[in-house]
Amino acid sequence: MARTLAPGQRSRIVTLDVNSGEITLVHESSEILYEAPNWSLDGSALYVNGGGDLYRLAFDDDGPRRIDFGDLPELNNDHVLDPDGMHVFVSANDGHIYRAPLASGEAIRVTNDNEDGRLHFLHGVSPDGATLAYIGLVSREDGSWAPANIFTIPAAGGDDTQLTDDEYPDDGSEYSPDGEWIYFNSERANTGAGHAQLFRMRPDGTDQQQLTHDERVNWFPHPSPDGTRLAYVSFPSGTEGHPADRDVIVRICDSDGGNVRDLRHLFGGQGTMNVPSWAPDGTRIAFVEYPIADGGAE
Length: 298
What we know:
- The protein is mainly beta.
- The protein has a domain at 78-274: Neuraminidase.
- Helices cover 0% and strands 44% of the residues.
- The chain has no helices and 23 strands.
- It has strands spanning 11-17, 23-29, 34-39, 45-50, 53-58, 65-66, 75-81, 87-92, 97-101, 108-109, 119-125, 131-137, 149-154, 161-162, 170-175, 182-186, 197-201, 209-210, 217-223, 229-235, 246-254, 261-268, 284-289.
- The radius of gyration is 18 Å and the shape is globular.
């Protein structure tokens, strides 16, 4: 079921200049809860999900325009553009990942029906478009969820490869622009419930390195187009998972975790910045904030 706005709440799609801090409001809605903006390859538009659909939001247009994917199941907020600029990979609420044409049309399923009943949540596409990095989630016999791990699969379909096998959840797997790293967040170094930090590893799962070491809960590292910086969402200490409707900080740091800097304090969390969020020229990031009248950060 797609998320909806609370009474008095708005979704504000904004861009932020990472050098000056200047905020630009792109679109605001009190009807649809938009989530997870990423950019077209030419920088002329954003792609956002809302109400289980994907929308194109051109900077020179009047508002978001829904993309028709035919009979594709309702979408969640995990969508990443194919480097060909003509397609997008999306996660649907049936637990599978699909490749669909940005100009509208029928989607093709990529992921497998695994024996473990795995759910697939897309976060990264390799720079050459050949491989997807996703989060696999499996239900235990008692109905609880096993810790999420990172997998890859060929973008054209094929065998899955498991890269992590943790007793604590991993999430947000995203490739560096040169394809040399997969960045992710993990609770493996936790000092308390829900305490996630940023990590990276090689695309084969080796050389795993912790990048941040603070007491906040850090999620969804997004490498800049030149690979030198990461943008991410930082939750208050003690937050479990990446819930909606929290006072969070959008932060930036060097690709090795150094020089952490706050960019924006906002009311948001889940949906704010779940997918690759940098403008192609590396000067801006896009995200969504969810202010509530008489409550939450404005």
